[in-house]
């Protein structure tokens, strides 16, 4: 899940490019290249992922700023600047993580598919 792998076989990549390449960051395979799992089970499937992502993001932002402000004693302004830098760096990874998380949540691991995917290499 953290490596943006297929939910069913944990072998195939969900995205054609690397997280930090910034080339086609939001391009996603329609099917698993290894086990042929459908990454788009229904239209609008990833609205839920966006929702999850917003919740995580809100909590994370809050925690991040509070940590810098109170634990590291930075000013609120400086904390927010660090937050922006951090978010700019990990935005793509985060977007993909939300999708991978969502797919894993709703689809789940299928060991028999992993076997097939491994056999294919
Ligand atoms: Zn797969």
- The quaternary structure here is single chain
Average of pLDDT = 85
Poorly predicted runs: none
The number of distinct helices, counting runs of at least 4 residues, comes to: 3
What is the H/E string?
A: HHH
Question: How many E strands?
Answer: 0
Q: Whole-Å distance between the termini?
A: 19 Å
Strand content: under 5%
| Outline type | elongated
The helical percent reads 40-55%
Query: Rg from C-alpha positions?
Result: 17 Å
Derived from helix and strand composition plus strand pairing, the structural class reads mainly alpha
Question: What descriptors fit this protein?
Answer:
binds zinc ion; 3 helices; elongated
Describe the model.
The chain is mostly helical. The chain is 55% helix and 0% strand. The chain is built from 3 helices and no strands. The protein has helices at 47-71, 76-106, 111-120. The longest helix has 31 residues, at 76-106. The protein is elongated, with a radius of gyration of 17 Å. It binds zinc ion. Residues 6, 8-9, 11-12, 32, 34-35, 37, 113, 117 line the site of zinc ion.
